[in-house]
Amino acid sequence: MDNTSRTDSATAQLMEQILYEVKRVVVGQDRFLERVMVAMLAEGHLLVEGVPGLAKTLTVKTLAHTMRGQFKRIQFTPDLVPADLVGTRIYNQRTGEFNTSLGPVFANLLLADEINRAPAKVQSALLEVMQEHQVTIAGETHKVPDPFLVMATQNPIETEGTYPLPEAQVDRFMMKVLVDYPTDEEEFVIVQRVTGPAVEVTPVATTEQLHELQKECRQVYVDPSLVQYAVKLVSATRWPERHGLKDMGKYITYGASPRATIALTEGARAMAMLRGRGYALPEDMTDLVLDVLRHRVVLSYEALSEGLNSDQVVQKIMAKIPPPAKPLEHEKLVA
């Protein structure tokens, strides 16, 4: 067995251990958990939306406990101020100097619970740290730990006391994942597990191992034709008429940014790695298109008046722009 095979085997075993530990606590939600793992491997931030009680917070907390890293949770409320997130300068009467007190964003995994409950100035405080992985306090720059991931949850059904996320911040989330209700069978197991003995989660990975997995993920091969497919999809959200979607133009006010193309490519890499491959296939990318684009496509009033949502618009675009047919001819050559 060569070194590459041993590395692939060790990687698969580690990810299997992480998923096993999480599934000891969380029932179902396989699709959501898969997206969380993709975001971690691709070094992207995740926005999770679902009604209360669907284990959004529990999944992220459990995943954090499987790693020996720093985990912080911030409960967003209307009275929160930016200093509560990033930190502030505190005057020390004994020394007569100002000391910097760093906020909870200085962690490897940050859970921003109910992020839409805080006002825009607090949400905007996350902009710099999500993009630059650093915080500026009183003109002094402080780096957050590496790796650094933000996973934010929001509740879609309550509008009272909530604030819509600024578009600039929404775009910094690699994916927006919608979490749905469990099946009857899953709910039966949930009740049994919650009312039974508590399950202790065992840490099985370190932040150093996660960092190595992220570096390994960047080595996954993505064929140029697959990147071109991502470019066409994102371009069609900006100029639908150029891609034979003339009727779609009236439904879209603003299309997705280049961050969407990057997220599709990096996401396909991470998905391929999760599925045990060193190369990405079209289905690795198509499985993530809705999650990557749904929060980046701003619909027009006409689309909303007709009852259309972002997912339906993106699906119409996907139906018009087919993915490349198995672009990996080199795989046959190797065989």
UniProtKB/TrEMBL annotation:
<dbReference type="InterPro" id="IPR050764">
    <property type="entry name" value="CbbQ/NirQ/NorQ/GpvN"/>
</dbReference>
<feature type="domain" description="ChlI/MoxR AAA lid">
    <location>
        <begin position="251"/>
        <end position="317"/>
    </location>
</feature>
<dbReference type="GO" id="GO:0016887">
    <property type="term" value="F:ATP hydrolysis activity"/>
</dbReference>
<dbReference type="Pfam" id="PF17863">
    <property type="entry name" value="AAA_lid_2"/>
</dbReference>
<comment type="similarity">
    <text>Belongs to the MoxR family.</text>
</comment>
<feature type="domain" description="ATPase AAA-3">
    <location>
        <begin position="45"/>
        <end position="175"/>
    </location>
</feature>
<dbReference type="GO" id="GO:0005524">
    <property type="term" value="F:ATP binding"/>
</dbReference>
<keyword id="KW-0067">ATP-binding</keyword>
<dbReference type="Pfam" id="PF07726">
    <property type="entry name" value="AAA_3"/>
</dbReference>
<keyword id="KW-0547">Nucleotide-binding</keyword>
<dbReference type="InterPro" id="IPR011703">
    <property type="entry name" value="ATPase_AAA-3"/>
</dbReference>
<protein>
    <submittedName>
        <fullName>MoxR family ATPase</fullName>
    </submittedName>
</protein>
<dbReference type="InterPro" id="IPR027417">
    <property type="entry name" value="P-loop_NTPase"/>
</dbReference>
<dbReference type="InterPro" id="IPR041628">
    <property type="entry name" value="ChlI/MoxR_AAA_lid"/>
</dbReference>
